[in-house]
Each structure stands twice: as structure tokens, then as C-alpha cells.
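Q: My labmate handed me this sequence with no annotations at all. I'd like to see what the chain might look like in three dimensions before we decide whether it's worth expressing. Could you predict it?
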Amino acid sequence: MAVTTPPARGPGARPSGVHLVLNRTLVYGGLAVVTGGIYSGLTWLVTMLAGSQDAVAGLVAALSAGAVFHPARLRLQRGVDRLLRVERDPYRVADRLSRTLQEAVDPAEGLVTAAALVRQALRADGVAVEVHDGHTGVVVDGELGDRPVETPLVWHGEPVGRLLSSGSGTSPDLLDALARHLAELAHAVRLTADVRRSRERILTTREEERRRLRRDLHDGLGPTLASLAMTVDEARLRLERDPEAVEGLLIRVRDQMGTAIVDVRDLVYGLRPPALDDLGLVGSLRALADAPGPRVDIAVVGPLGDVPAAVEVAAYRIAQEALTNVRRHAQATTALVRVELVRAGTDHAGVEQTGAPVAGGGSGRSGGAEDSGTKGGGATGLRAAGTGAAARGELRLSVADDGIGLPERVRGGVGLVSMRERAAEAGGSCTVGPRPGGGTEVIVRLPLETEKP
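A: Here is what I predict for the chain of 453 residues:
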């Protein structure tokens, strides 16, 4: 998001020096007219009532003019500020900013309106609001100078952007008040961008799944069912003319039905691995570990409880891909799969492990081809994915081996891209790197988007 608003014409665009001179000229010029009129009028009135006592008339007029001087100055100042669209009270400015933002259609549009309002309140030549949402978006109103004043935008201790202003001599109180409200708006803009990207990712994933199902139905199950129907018709036609040939046709029908059942089962398995429903996540990982090849140990840190279905599928598929590459490319003797569920405010529990830990060692380049970067890494150098629990909890999965490690130049093959995409679809991350002492490690962090009680 990068929006630039051209410099506006009018009182809000005047340089601060001219604006200040005009403001004070109008205030004190009006004050001189008011106090002069009061003094002259009272002097004439007292003189008319008391005769020729000029001293008494002057004293009464001076005292009266002095009494109305300060109230008149305050009223004139407020009137001139309204005329020139200047607001000196930071709380009034903040309230005006809040009311303006409430009327905005979406946070991005509100940010454009807020930039113009902040520039007017600061009486600045230019204002820019930067929002950090993975890529820096900026909204500019006016023209920024060479050395703008920078004010950080912090939302609950987290930097979400910054406010840049030039040509203003505003008090720190006003800047702080505006920065607090802009931080809320910047956070809303970030959330809106996250929701939009998530929606786009969901739509893309759905359309890809639909395309896969259509291809499988059209190229696999469809021809099988059509052939089955043709074989049944042929058997029906031969039933009266050549009954002995029907038996062979029925055998072929049975074989075709078996093929169709396998195709249907493959379609169902492609939607969600049945092992997750039958065995759960830990049981499914242990089933993956029983495949031929290097010994694979499973370590579970504490109880996993109920994990969201999307997180289960992502963790299972990533572990499956990582173990496939361990067996194909790593030349490892042992591997370790470690899984842990971390929730806010909980301590790490003990480790339930099947088998022995992964031995260290192993060096050199990987024997893998394009997917060599997707192998698991060694467990003795296993890094923790983090020390503190995420705000809403996360599932941490790591796959480690004691193989020959990564090559010097790792190519992003289909397996590596697949693991990262699956982690990204679940809102998490997947990193692949060398393990200290040899081997490779895959570290996955999947946030729990919806925690169950």
C-alpha cells in the first residue's frame, strides 16, 4: 500500500511561519479593537454621567478594559483557530480524529483521511504515515522535507509503523496523542491486509483442490466407470447368445469395480489422511516411522490434546515429506521427529520418546537431488523453535537426521516448496538448515488459530 496525496491548497498548506503570523495578527488586532472600543465607550459614558471628571472616567474605563482583556483574548483565539482550522487541544484533536476514522469505509481509506487531518492539526508542510505489514506501506499528504520529524507508532508494545512530519512546531503532547490513535489505525490496516492475504490464500488453495479433484475424476474414476458400464452392457447382450462368455465379462467387471474402489479411496485419502482419524497425529507419525529405511524415533513433549484439523494435516504432510527425503537422500542411520504443543502460560512437560536419540556425526554434501534441502536435520543439535509460548499457542514439529547434511548450494525443489507452502497455508513457518555436528534439521511452527477449551 503506497498512497500519495498531492499538496492541498488553503490554510492547511501554509508554511507554519506565515500561519503563525496571520493567526496572531488576527487575534491581537481583534483584541485591540475590542479593548479600545470598550475603553472609549466607557470613558464617554462615565464623562456624560459624571460631568467633567476625566480622571474617574479613565480609571473606570481602564479597569473594565483590563477585566475583559483575557476572556476576550481566549474567545478571539478560539474563533481565529476555527477560521484557520487550527486545534490546540490534543484531546480535541484526538476526538476529532477518532470520529473521522469511525466514518471511514475501511482502515486503508481511514488512513488517507487521518494523514490529511493530522497534517492539518500539526500545521505541517507534509505528513507521512508508514505501516509495517510485511512490506512497508506509506500514505503521504503534502510534501515532506529533507529531515522530517519521526514519531514511532506502537500498539501494545509492538512497533506497527511511524509518523513523519515536516515544517511543524507542534508540542510533544499533541504528537503523542495523535501517535496513539494512529497506532490503533495502523494495527487495523495490518489486520485487514492479513485477512485479505489469508482470504486470497484460502481461495487459491480451494481452487487448486477443485482442479485436482476434477482431474482425478475426469482422468481416473470417470473412464473406469464408463468402461464398467460398457462391460455390463456387453454381458447383457451376450447373456442369451453366448452364456459361457458372460463369466469372463463378469470377472472383468469385478476387476474394474476393484479399480474404481481404489480410485475412490485415493480421492478420499487425498482430502485428508485416514491415519489421522484412525490413529491421531502421534500415531500417524509413528506409522510413518515404521517404514523401511533409517530408524526413526518419535519424541512427544507433553500431551498434545485437541489440535485443529488443518494444523494436524499440515504437520503430518510436512513430516511425511521430510522423512521421505531423509530416506531418499540423507544417507542417515537414524532420525528423530519431535512434536510439541505450546500454549500461553504453560510449562514444558516431560518428553515421551520411542527409540534412542539420533546419533551425531555426518558431514559432507547431501546426496539428494532437487529435494535435498527438504530432509530432516540431526537431533543432537536440535534447536528449539522458541522459548516462550505464542500468544494463542502453536504446534512445533522438528525432523532431524544424522546424515551427510545439506549441499553448499541448495536448490528449492518440489519437496521444499511443498513443505513451506503447507506451513504458510496454516499461518506458520518452515525452516530447513544444517544441524551442528552434521546432518540437517527441519523446524516447523504452526499457530493454533482456534484453541479448544
